[in-house]
Design brief:
single chain; about 400 residues; alpha/beta; 8-stranded mixed sheet; 7-stranded parallel sheet; 14 helices
């Protein structure tokens, strides 16, 4: 058992505490820390009847002196980072200062593509202190890469192709003004490129240029489009033996009719015009007088995610689907959060348990892919993660077209 310090108070924290505090075999005590202590106190009260004791504290991570003073009082053995991703380097150094192990979920929740490289720069410092640091212990990438490695070990002799897919897993970002609305409608990814791995080399192609349509168990038939996800590039480092990797997700293009009309009449111009002695850009005027109600919110219906892994078994071609599916309303009823948050919390809880019991014990900085995959998946299954490995027909990948509106 370990004394655990959790930095950050959010939905994942809530679901994580529900799992960790129910079983005293892994964690002896949890201290929940945030700049908003009142938020921490709400969760402390919510789970006060569970066996694991929770304490709370307020801390400003940017205030090094007060943070070190708090550490000297709490003396944690494991630091869990659920703060903003841009704070992860500071929290890793806090763990080094304290002589504590470290775990986070932040690998792909930040625009900085170099984040993982920055974290691995601390490999030597963690190794020299005999400490374990695990980054990206969330559904994507931690569980996805674990599913791929589990399939490779139990169902295939060699892998040729991995196609990652997500169906209705994440809600769109909140939109509160006309500028944000324009950005969401115009879909910035069209101005970017999608990275895929082809014959062991990364290539850039147009988004939505490929699509697949498959029957997903417990969800139904879905069309998914080629989109960008940093997990694809991670395969080059984590599972380089897979020569071909792509990411597909369901996607619906929003209607551009409103944007087109506003653009035609000049209301999207950012050039100031003068009206009765006052200068203002038309788009800034719109932002003031035309609030846009966000269509973001809770994901409804069923969500699914997983991988199609193709390769060779006993000299024959074989395709295996590893997938998990769950209904969001049922998940919120039973666990208080939607499927995406629940899956992330289960992955993180399993990682904490594995570090606490010494089953994830390597000196240095790693991702979950560096460890035995079934250790993570089996613990998640015990806490409510339902997934399956089944033989599947090879994928038919077609040229993309305009996504459904």
């Amino acid at each position: 058992m370990k004394k655990v310090l959790i930095f950050g108070c959010n939905e994942v924290t809530d679901a994580l505490l529900s799992v960790l505090c129910s079983d005293i075999r892994y964690v002896s005590e949890i201290c929940l820390v945030s700049e908003d202590k009142a938020c921490c106190d709400v969760l402390k009260k919510k789970y006060s009847s569970l066996p694991v004791r929770i304490t709370t504290a307020r801390a400003d991570i940017n205030n090094e002196t007060s943070t070190k003073m708090m550490l000297s009082i709490i003396q944690p053995e494991l630091i869990v980072n659920l703060e903003k991703p841009e704070l992860c380097m500071k929290l890793m150094k806090i763990a080094l200062f304290q002589g504590a192990s470290y775990i986070d979920t932040t690998l792909y929740q930040w625009e900085d593509k170099e984040l993982l490289s920055k974290q691995f720069e601390l490999f030597g410092e963690f190794r020299n202190k005999g400490l374990t640091a695990v980054t990206g212990c969330s559904f994507n990438p931690g569980v996805i890469t674990s599913l791929v490695r589990s399939v490779a070990r139990s169902r295939l002799d060699s892998m040729d192709e991995v196609n990652i897919f997500e169906v209705n897993l994440k809600a769109p970002a909140p939109v509160t003004n006309i500028k944000e609305f324009i950005n969401s409608v115009e879909y910035k990814a069209k101005e970017e490129k999608v990275v895929l791995i082809k014959n062991g080399t990364s290539e850039e192609v147009a988004p939505l240029s490929l699509k697949i349509r498959r029957e997903i168990p417990d969800v139904g038939a879905r069309t998914m489009y080629l989109l960008n996800n940093l997990i694809v590039e991670d395969f080059l480092k984590e599972i380089p033996e897979v020569p071909n990797v792509r990411y597909f997700s369901t996607y619906k293009r929003k209607s551009t009719a409103l944007i087109d009309t506003l653009k035609d009449v000049g209301m999207l111009s950012d050039t100031p015009i003068e009206i009765e002695g006052v200068k203002i850009a038309p788009i800034d005027f719109l932002s003031k007088v035309m609030p846009v109600a966000s269509d973001a919110g809770e994901v409804t219906g069923k969500s699914a995610a997983g991988v199609f892994v193709s390769g060779i078994k006993d000299g024959q071609e074989r395709c295996v689907m590893a997938h998990a599916a769950m209904d969001n309303e049922e998940c919120r009823r039973d666990n208080g959060v939607g499927v995406n948050v629940f899956y992330d919390a289960l992955a993180l809880a399993a990682g904490i348990k594995l570090i606490s019991t010494g089953k994830w014990e390597k000196a240095g900085v790693f991702t979950p892919c560096a460890f035995e995959p079934d250790l993570l998946l089996d613990l998640m299954r015990k806490d409510g993660f339902k997934y399956s490995l089944t033989d599947a027909e090879p994928l038919n990948i077609d040229m993309g077209d305009e996504a459904d509106e």
